[in-house]
Amino acid sequence: MNSFLTKLFEAWTNADDLSCVEARFAAIYTDPVRVNGTDMSLADLAARARALHEAFSGLQAEVLQLVDGKDSVAVAFVIHGWHTGAYHSPIGTIPPTGSKVQIRSIDVLTLSDGKISGICVIADDLGTLRQLGWQP
Questions:
Q1: What is the CATH number of the domain that holds 60?
Q2: Is position 89 within any domain?
Q3: What is the percent of the chain where pLDDT is above 70?
Q4: Quick check: pTM over 0.90?
């Protein structure tokens, strides 16, 4: 894995001093960054990271596949962790289950001047919900 992706995944999975996550993101993302067609500020991204850490502990990233282009990178990955807090999901809040979870995603990152300026996220939300016991 290249050093840029290492820094990116460490910024998202590092639970040390979450009050500094916005500063960590400033070295990686433009402000704003376009996520699935919507501009998000670094503060918005930092809030997402804090919510992730409130819901899951012991987070570790595993890169499954990487396609590296000139101005874009596609990365398929899994975030491993434990569901130890309330998870605010697309279908509502799921109380902690203590379950081990694998959060799967494919991100296509657009790079501008060495920073991520756009992200197309394709996340397996249904797979995550199923691991937490949700039934349709």
A1: 3.10.450.50
A2: yes
A3: 99
A4: yes
